[in-house]
Every structure is written in structure tokens, then in C-alpha cells.
Design brief:
Elements (H helix, E strand, L loop, with lengths): L16 H17 L2 E6 L6 H6 L5 E8 L4 E7 L6 E5 L1
Antiparallel strand pairs: 1-2, 2-3, 3-4
The chain binds zinc ion.
Length: 89
């Protein structure tokens, strides 16, 4: 794929909760390094793991923007083992 960016690459296979937590932890580092911008989310980025473990909501979404210009949505569903990680327009 032309112009694929190593920072915001999404694995091309079935995703699981480990992928979700891996990406969150990686992308949190990217945010502190200025590679990603944290746009908005259902919880703060800092306490995300704690907050989603409260299970107050069914799905938690967080939005990021990579320095390459791509916007990404990442979602964690409490009752599903498959996270949502996708580019948005
Ligand atoms: Zn990127």
C-alpha cells in the first residue's frame, strides 16, 4: 500500500484484546512523543485501563490522529473479544 505509515499501521488480521491494549500503550507513548494526537475519547488516556475495567459503558471509543494525517478510531467492547480499530474519514 502506497504511503503506509509505520506508526498508525493496523494489523491485517483478526484482532483481539491484546492488540487493543498493545495499541493503547504504544499510542499513548506516541502521543507523549508528539507522533500521535489524542483527539477525544470516552475516558482519559492516562486512566483508560482502569476506567474501562469499571464497565460503565458497553463500548469505549478513543480517537487519534497520526502525524501522517490519518485519523483512527479504536474501540473496546466489554462483551466482545474483538476490538474495533479502523481509519476514519
Ligand atoms: Zn500514520
Amino acid at each position: 500500500m502506497k504511503g503506509e505509515c509505520k506508526y498508525c499501521k493496523i494489523p491485517n488480521r483478526e484482532l483481539n484484546h491484546n492488540d487493543y491494549f498493545e495499541k493503547i500503550s504504544l499510542w499513548r507513548d506516541y502521543v507523549s512523543q508528539g507522533i500521535f494526537k489524542f483527539v477525544k475519547g470516552d475516558t482519559s488516556l492516562k486512566n483508560l485501563e482502569n476506567e474501562i475495567s469499571n464497565e460503565d459503558k458497553y463500548v469505549y471509543y478513543h480517537y487519534f490522529e497520526c502525524k501522517c494525517g490519518k485519523k483512527i478510531k479504536i474501540g473496546f467492547c466489554i462483551r466482545s473479544s474483538v476490538p474495533i480499530i479502523e481509519y476514519i474519514k
